[in-house]
Specification:
Mean pLDDT: 93
Distance between the termini: 31 Å
Helix content: 25-40%
Strand content: 25-35%
CATH class: Alpha Beta
Radius of gyration: 17 Å
Number of helices: 2
Bound molecules: zinc ion
Low-confidence stretches: none
Largest sheet: 3 strands, mixed
Structural class: alpha+beta
Strand order of the largest sheet: 2-1-6
Length: 113
């Protein structure tokens, strides 16, 4: 269950960040999750809830938004949004595609008080 590891990493980033900004409590954690990352949001939310107990992030809301796959065409260099399972350059039709995004996750914003 890699959601626990991800939740740990998110808190490791979020907690010092909140502290640096003089926040006493984290109200909301905003994340971007790539649709190809395999992260199950409800598991991640649950893991965050468990791990944040006793920290400034306890009870924080988790707001996750999804990022579609990003592709880059090796033939013409065009960057575009890929559709799962079908990676063809919309500009030149080439199938020489490199995945450049949508497989990771990112902490985008913290709502604090
Ligand atoms: Zn192309």
């Amino acid at each position: 269950m890699h959601e626990t590891a991800i939740a740990e990493q998110i808190l490791r980033t979020a907690l010092p960040l909140a502290q640096e900004n003089g926040a006493v409590r984290i109200l909301e954690i905003r994340l971007e999750i790539g649709v190809l990352s395999g992260v199950v949001p409800s598991y991640l939310e649950h893991a965050l809830k468990e791990l944040s107990r006793g920290t400034a992030a306890e009870g924080a809301k988790v707001a996750a938004s999804y990022v579609p796959p990003q592709i880059r065409c090796e033939a013409c260099g065009a960057e575009s949004e890929g559709r799962r399972g079908l990676y063809v350059c919309p500009v030149c039709g080439s199938e020489k595609i490199r995945l450049t995004g949508g497989s990771g996750y990112k902490l985008t914003d913290l709502l604090v008080e």
